[in-house]
Amino acid sequence: MDNVSYQRFPTVRIRDIKDDVLKFELRDTDASIANALRRIMIAEVPTLAIDLVEIESNSSVLNDEFLAHRLGLIPIVSDRAMEMRLSRDCDACDGDGRCEYCSIEFHLSVKCTGDQTLDVTSLDLVSSDPSIIPVDAAGRAADMGGFESNDTRGILIVKLRKGQELKLRAIARKGIGKDHAKWSPAATVTFQYEPEIHINEALMETLTLEEKQEWIDSSPTKVFELDPVSQQVVVVDPEAYTYDEEVLKKAEAMGKPGLVEIYSKEDSFIFTVESTGAIKASQMFLNAIEILKSKLDAVRLSFDTEEADDQFGELGAHMRGGGI
Amino acid sequence: MGVSKADEVDDGDNIVSSHKEGLEAPVKTAVDKFQLLPSFLKVRGLVKQHIDSFNYFINCEIKKIIHAQGNEKVTSDVDANFYLKYLDIFVGEPCVEQDYIYEPITPQQCRLRDMTYSAPISVDVEYTRGKEVVVRKGKDGKQEGSINIGRMPIMLRSSRCILAGKNEAQLAKVGECPLDPGGYFVVKGTEKVILIQEQLSKNRIIITTDSSGSVAASVTSSTHERKSKTNMVVKHERIYLRHNTFGDDIPIVVVMRAMGMESDQEIVQMVGRDPKYAGILNPSLQECAALKIYTSHQALEYLGSKVRSRNMFTKQKRTKVDEARDILATVVLAHVPVHQFDFRAKCIYLAVIIRKMLEAMLNREAVDDMDYVGNKRLELAGQLLSLLFEDLFKRMNAELKKSMDATLSKANRSTQFDIIKLIRPDTLTNGLEHAISSGNWAVKRFKMDRKGVTQVVSRLSFIAALGHMTRISSQFEKTRKVSGPRALQPSQWGMLCPCDTPEGEACGLVKNLSLMTHVTTDEEEAPLIELCTTLGVEDLSLLSGEELHSPKTYLVFFNGTILGVHRRPNRFAEVLRKLRRAGKIGEFVSVHVNPKHRNIQIASDGGRVCRPLVIADKGVSRVKEHHMKELKDGFRTFDDFLREGLVEYLDVNEENNSLIALYEGDATPDTTHIEIEPFTILGVCAGLIPYPHHNQSPRNTYQCAMGKQAMGNIAYNQLQRMDTLLYLLVYPQRPLLSTKSIELVGYDKLGAGQNATVAVMSYSGYDIEDAIVMNKSSLDRGFGRCIVIKKSVVPMKKYANRTADRIMAPELQSSAKGGVQVVARQQLQDHDGIAAVGEMIRPGDIYVNKQSPIDTRNNVNNPMALPDSAYKRTPQTYKGAAGETAVVDKVLLTSNDENHFVVKCLIRQTRRPEVGDKFSSRHGQKGVCGTIVQQEDFPFSERGICPDLIMNPHGFPSRMTVGKMIELLGGKAGLHNGKFHYGSAFGEPSGHADKVSTISATLVKHGFSYSGKDFIYSGITGSPLQAYIFMGPIYYQKLKHMVLDKMHARARGPRVVLTRQPTEGRSREGGLRLGEMERDCLIAYGASMMILERLMISSDQFQIQVCTKCGMIGYYHHKLKICLCSTCKSGDNIATMKLPYACKLLFQELQSMNIVPRLTLAEA
After folding, report:
1. Nearest to B785 by CA among B917, B911, B928, B908
2. Inter-chain touch B1009–A190, beta carbons under 8 Å
3. Looking at residue A248, which CATH number applies to its domain?
4. Is residue B1017 one of the residues assigned to a domain?
5. pLDDT of residue A322
6. Judging by DSSP bridges, how do beta strands B554-558 and B561-566 pair with one another?
7. B-chain residues within 8 Å CB-CB of A55?
């Protein structure tokens, strides 16, 4: 066992990259790494979120806790979050919002004076740091020519009627999704195994055209298609396959087992990452790798001792880069 | 493919053209008729039965009461010329007197200010003053009399309520929720509903069998003046009359004789000459002969001797015969009128009873079913109030008479006597208010004494309040172990909800009305009787006994009394029904031909349950396509359907004369009616369940109970209200899988739950026994988050010596830094000494800094300027669980109509779900939260969907809640379809419930498996799960049971003063009892020291000195430091021992009653 190397060289191929969406293939590694990355993106990539709210006056219909909860869930642009300190680790201050290393102060002061209901949105939050503001996805999209109307901008916090007032001070702090979902930068992080589909052409040719079409239609997702020219069944989108085995069942029902063979590639993953907008989806992935590395470093730091080796056993050897 | 599109367009055209050509074509599907329901509910409302009944009482019944014989005139025993006559009575608009000014009042004001929502009752009178006759009337045109005689609590949304006829904006202005159904009262600030009472029909002959199996008949007669129950029993093959007024059972023939039937032949003729009847009647006739009673007088003498002597001091001079005759005329079968002692009608009535009994003896099937809904009457608020009102009115008049007589009997009066000044409105006001607020209905003249008639409206959730209005409580005792009254009756169909009943002792006795049920009110009898005669009913007085039961005629009963006979019963019934459909007679009059008993029952009495049905002629519905179109376009209302004879109300008895088809398609030429919507057989609570017809029946019953405990929104005015306990959900949602009932009752606007994505799988082992696993991130984002608001009231008392409580500013003390600061525990207070809104409040904090005068009895010179030393502190401290953040939500300073000042504080907590909180789906599947798991550990699908909670699949096989599975499928399809799917009960044929096949097709269209199962990855390892997981949204309710309110543990804590044992109960921080059975276990195990430790050392151990010589308890003299026995006066033989304090207490108590317990000690 000593000389076996477990080292692999995973590759990443990016398929689609936008500010809030990232799609890529992760190859030549196994589920543990893929899942570790997924878990870290959900739970451990730090962002900023409002954590403390001091309410000066609130005559809105929602009570203070309700508002505080809503404020907390507003995503805040957190590009700086990786460098910032967690307020519990910050020696310089006590997390009161005056400390530039760990907290950012927001102010909100709105009063409805008109007869129309007034929407208080995340755009009304005034930040002490111009670079750290609430995420404005709609606004960003409008800048890029997506949305036209102005009134969809911002995230609605509460609606005020005439005479109602809301005045508060909020402090955003760095945190991770494990503590509270508001700190999670991930809207969606998921992966799937890449399917490998082999059509038994010979057997397929024994089917009539109608049977082929029927067989194709048995799949709830559009994986196969009938080539209009050659009248052959071709795989158009293997990734649309949801491992539902409907086509296999159909083939069996048609009396043609083995019409198609579908495996999942054990070492190849297709990731979909969507961000809340707090950080870019691509940055989120990079941060996740960074965090995974630092976690591994933390393990590596303690491997010198005998106990660590005992504790991790073969894994320890693996950590050291495939057996010494 | 393009062709199919063209086809669709064509189809559309076809529909339009079929509209045109088929104006007379019957409605093909039931979908079209659905529109009738909302319009029915628009005109009738969900609690219309309560409101109708109250309106009837206020507008008609109350006038009848004051004009009733014995009520109308108050006369004096002293002055024969004097009288007071009530001319008219009015119930005004709800108002309140403030500084001698009457101001209109809103129900919301009453709730907040702890007042009664009531209106003045005023009368017009005519009376003598001196020698003149005075008439005092209120202003013409106004609904107002001249003299106020009391106040009547007003039912919300009744015709007198200020909310009647208001639109949504106007309701909002008076602080009322537009979805609130009304139908309850506000008495002293609490909302009270008068439960519907279920009773056996009055004035109807009911044939039963007694315990020994012999036939008996009973009639409960009820008139305005009298209530009595007449029984007829069979003993030794003879028939007897049994009545309270007679000490003994009376042979029935004797009674007939006494009523003037001197000839046996006549009796036999009246009962029926058929030898099979005459044969059984023979022994009864012989008995009479054996008693040697041949004449009416002899019979009356016999009866007179049997009359139970009541110590009536009035009119002693009456002979026994007269007394017996009087009883026969007015008490026995009181509802059959007897004029001038003409007993013929009553004789016939008796004969009919006998005939029915004989029939039942010959054929056991003729015995009536007591539980049959047609034999039941529902007593509503109006009827109950009218009973109470009449009683109080009589009492008021009696009091008036008494004080009048007292005044009139005085020889010389200084001023002229004016009776108006003697009228005291308190009797009525307090009597009504007290009865409604306590629920004790005591009506002396009917010997009625019911408890728990009213209940506080449950405001736990919107549905709970609504369900409370439709509740029916039965008069049967809960302890009786009979299944009959509790069983589901086939005749309940469409009238009473088959699902909604509590479990346990009240099971089947407490019921709920169905969605479309209406309860009738009384209708004028005289015109109807006249109509019957016109339509060919031959009057009783014209008939001989022989003709009564001739095979060609049917007896005609009207509200239980016999009108006469009719030769063509079916024709007669048909004509009556035609008149009813044409609106010539009341829509709730029912006609029922009973060929088995050969009679026609016409009923116009109140309390019958009925429901609307579409009329069909020879199986063709009268409601056509164009009617529904007109309804949809707003040219038509439900009342138009009624008026035009398209729809009619049928009561349970009349349903037996009709053949009702469920759908048009099922109709045959014999069909007379077609159901409007099958799901209306369910009530309000059961209407929330999607696909209830796919569930095991008890599950629906469980859900009906649980839906009332679900948290959500209560009303639009929920934050303006000051309820003692309020549970709100932070983000309530509308169910993804809706039903038609949900939309009709407004549950979609005031929901109580959230759509959770549920994965049905096993996870972590913390999901056994119905526990659910929850996603922590979902909870972070607000799933299941709730607000609990508790009210605490601080009354500011006023005392007899004109002193009063006062509130002081928070106390100050000098701080360590040199300045002044507010004392601890009072820092949350404002300058006025009352907690500031928005402040956090901790256990022990003082939220009202109240002070009370020390002396509250003796007169004080200047009560407003008492020195501070005359007050003691009586602060109000908050008692809540430590470690929980509570916030002062609202403070209300107000005073009620008696100028008592109160401070009401609302204290709010926001709670997120924790392990142990109870959740439930809408299918009676409750479960507690077993564990909370991080999102990254939760399974996920390749689309990135991660469930909110995980439910164990073992919940399904034994519960058989298929409806829940379909809900999941439908919800999932709806999610991707962007529309709400429906799952109304029995809705598949009519399109009110989506079929599984169509749902599956939708799922497949959106790339899901038709079965609703997904391919899922483990969040922990990242590898795919072995099985496909059934995953999708299910509407989950958070129930009010939360661990935080229940968890309790104690190591050390308070003890009871008397026994020195630990206190009991969570509220008193009590100990956990090691009970008898646990003790038995320890004994069996032999852990004697453990028992000693648990039962004595850790409980109430006490050390005493015992004299070994006399065995009495001694004491330890602290100064001399010796032990002494007070009986022996020595300290020589004292032993010290330990025993439970309770034991010592027992010895002392025994001593106090002259029993000497002596302890005999032995060396241990």
Report:
1. B911
2. no
3. 3.30.70
4. yes
5. 46
6. antiparallel
7. 838
- What residues have CB less than 8 Å from A286, skipping those under 6 apart? none
Domain hosting residue A109, numbered range: 47-182
Contacts of B907 (CB under 8 A, 6+ apart): B789, B790, B791, B792, B841, B847, B878, B880, B886, B887, B888, B889
- pLDDT value for A258: 82
Helices (H), B637-738: 638-643, 652-655, 697-706
- Residue A199 parent element (H or E): strand A186-199
Tell me the C-alpha distance between A280 and A79, whole Å.
8
d(CA B757, CA B755) in angstroms, rounded, equals 7
Same domain (yes/no): A236, A112: no
**A43 to chain B, minimum CA–CA distance in Å?**
7
Q: For residues B1110 and B1125, is the Cβ–Cβ distance under 8 A? A: yes
**Among candidates B199, B200, B157, which has minimal Cα distance to B52?**
B157
Please give the Cα distance from B384 to B302 (Å, whole number): 39
- Interface contact A181-B935, CB threshold 8 A: yes
A266 confidence band (pLDDT: 50, 70, 90): confident
* Residue listed under structure tokens 């967690």: A86
Write down how long chain A is. Answer: 324
Contacts of A242 in chain B (CB under 8 A): 942, 1007-1009, 1014-1015
Q: Give yes or no for residue A199 having a pLDDT over 70.
A: yes
Number of H helices, E strands in chain A: 9, 12
Q: Determine phi and psi for A255, rounding to 5 degrees.
A: 80, 20
In angstroms, the CA B897 to CA B905 distance is 20
Domain-ending residue, one of A228, A258, A288: A258
The interaxial angle of helices B526-534 and B569-581, nearest 10 deg, is 130
Structure tokens at B884: 């929980």
- The pLDDT, as a whole number, for residue B507 is 87
Q: Which residues contact A293 (CB under 8 A, 6 or more apart)?
A: none
Whether A189 sits inside 8 A of B910 (CB atoms) is no
Q: Which residue has the tokens 């007042």?
A: B115
Say whether residue B86 is in contact with chain A using an 8 A CB cutoff.
no
Q: Which residues touch B730 (CB under 8 Å, ≥6 apart)?
A: A66, A69, B782, B785, B786, B787, B910
Res A303: pLDDT? 56
Low-confidence ranges of chain B (pLDDT < 70): 1-32, 140-142, 309-317, 411-415, 476-481, 883, 1164
Do B1085 and B1034 fall into the same domain? Answer: no
Cβ neighbourhood burial of B177 (10 Å; 0-12, 13-18, 19+): buried
Instruction: Write out the two tokens for B728.
Output: 């709100």
Distance from CA of A52 to the nearest CA of B (A): 15
Catalytic residue among B88, B248, B770, B855: B770
Sheet holding A165-175, edge to edge: A47-58, A165-175, A103-111, A126-127
Based on its alpha-carbon atoms, the radius of gyration of chain B, rounded to whole angstroms, reads 37
Q: Which of B803, B905, B791, B890 is nearest to B848 (CA)?
A: B905
Q: Which long-range contacts (CB under 8 A, 24 or more apart) does B102-107 make?
A: B104/B162, B105/B162, B106/B162, B106/B174, B106/B175, B106/B176, B107/B156, B107/B161, B107/B162, B107/B163, B107/B174, B107/B176, B107/B186
In a domain, B105, yes or no: yes
Question: Is the CB of residue B466 less than 8 Å from the CB of residue B715?
Answer: no
pLDDT the model gives residue A318: 58
For residues A10 and A26, the answer to whether their CB atoms sit within 8 Å is yes
Looking at the structure, tell me whether residues B775 and B822 fall in a common domain: no
> Given this model, what pLDDT does residue B57 score?
92
Question: What pairing do the DSSP bridges indicate for beta strands B949-951 and B754-760?
Answer: parallel
Range of the domain at B114: 48-194+380-410+419-443+457-469
Sign of CA dihedral B907, B910, B916, B921: positive
3-state secondary structure of A322: coil
